[in-house]
Amino acid sequence: MLTVTDTFQGFSVDDLEAARMFYADRLGFEAVLGDMGLEITLPGGRSVFVYAKEDHEPATFTILNLAVPDIDRAVEELAAAGVALERYDGLPQDEKGVMRGRAAGRGPDIAWFTDPAGNVLAVIGD
Fold first, then answer.
1. By the 8 A CB rule, do 104 and 92 touch?
2. Domain of 92?
3. From first to last of its 126 residues, what are the pLDDT tens digits of the chain?
4. How many structural domains comprise the chain?
5. Cβ proximity of 13 and 64 under 8 Å
């Protein structure tokens, strides 16, 4: 069996400084740029490693889910920080861009947005 001492996740971007500014200034996470890339410290103490890739292609799936106690407040805070929510054809999103899964008996309330590299992130109501 494989011996593992630690784990972390990672994803690519096309511009590390733009990513650092987004994750630090807009989302409020600690984001430290180092020789190898960007280390973002997430709530709860976990971290994610972000690296530059010249031929970066945005992930077509959600790379990071952020659990929030109040999705409406989270959406307002994102808007105040200049972050626009994604709208997806065929999904029942309300005027704010939130898919109200809880009320429909279809999972959590969720809203999606992208980082400067086009990677998809989500806020999910607890």
1. yes
2. 9-125
3. 899 898 889 999 999 999 999 999 999 999 999 999 999 999 988 899 999 999 999 998 999 999 999 999 999 999 999 999 999 998 889 999 999 988 777 889 999 999 999 999 999 997
4. 1
5. no
Which helix (H) or strand (E) element contains residue 28? none
The residue type at 112: W
Whole-angstrom distance, CA of residue 42 vs CA of residue 115: 15
CATH of the domain at 33: 3.10.180.10
Instruction: Give the number of other Cβ atoms within 10 Å of residue 16's Cβ.
Output: 18
Query: Can you read off the two tokens belonging to residue 59?
Result: 């992930």
Residue 69 in domain: yes
Both tokens of residue 111?
């809203």
Q: Is residue 3 in some structural domain?
A: no
In terms of residues, how long is the chain?
126
Contacts of residue 87, defined as CB under 8 A and 6 or more positions apart, other chains included, come to 93, 97
Do the bridges between strand 120-125 and strand 109-114 make them parallel or antiparallel, or are there none, so unpaired?
antiparallel
